Amino acid sequence: MVWRAGWETWSAVAPVQRVPLEALSADDTAKLVNLWPGAAGVATDVSRLDLDAGGHPLLLTERLRYLLEGGVVDQVAPGIHQSLHARVMRFSQVARDLAAAAATLGRPVSFEMLCQVADLGERDAQSGLAEPLGADRGGFS
């Protein structure tokens, strides 16, 4: 289903429940990798992926995307992961909640859906998005 502005709210389409996420266990990481479309080729590297991501769903998602785009497990310096983590941790809790919601959804979505998944009002979400997208902070744009 493609979400379009103007459609009924997400909660009217399907039940929406906020679920706090904890760090992924090694078993959770293995399950996610095995369920990820096209990830059968990296399934042998699950323990390395778990170590690299440190239980963070966002880092695991980005690492999987990198590998599925042709990257090699040992090509990325470990410092990149710490750097990304440090950048994300500089943001407010609202911005981190939005990043977690985006990583959980794993695909482009509307602003409205992102707000619902992150359980944020429009004003807070706009403020939170300004942080990672802001050029003045060396954001992710």
Summarize the structure.
This protein is mainly alpha-helical. It has helices at 10-13, 26-35, 46-53, 57-68, 78-89, 93-105, 111-118, 122-133. The protein has 2 domains: 26-76, no CATH class; 90-137, no CATH class.
Please tell me about this protein's structure.
With 141 residues, this protein is mostly helical. Helix 3 crosses helix 4 (57-68) and helix 6 (93-105) crosses helix 7. The protein has helices at residues 10-13, 26-35, 46-53, 57-68, 78-89, 93-105, 111-118, 122-133. It folds into 2 domains: 26-76, no CATH class; 90-137, no CATH class. Mean pLDDT is 77; it is low at 1-8 and 135-141.
Secondary-structure element order, N to C: HHHHHHHH
Give the overall pLDDT as a whole number.
77
Q: How far do the termini sit from each other? A: 26 Å
**Domains, number:** 2
Largest β sheet strand count, sense and barrel closure: none
Helix content class: 55-70%
Gyration radius over CA: 16 Å
Indicate the low-confidence ranges by residue numbers.
Answer: 1-8, 135-141
> What is the total tally of β strands?
0
Class by SSE composition: mainly alpha
Principal-axis shape: globular
Number of helices: 8
Q: How big a fraction of the residues is strand?
A: under 5%
Q: Tags for this entry?
A:
56% helix, 0% strand, mainly alpha, disordered C terminus, 141 residues, disordered N terminus
Tell me the layout of helices and strands.
Elements (H helix, E strand, L loop, with lengths): L9 H4 L12 H10 L10 H8 L3 H12 L9 H12 L3 H13 L5 H8 L3 H12 L8
Helix pairs in contact: 2-3, 3-4, 4-6, 6-7, 6-8
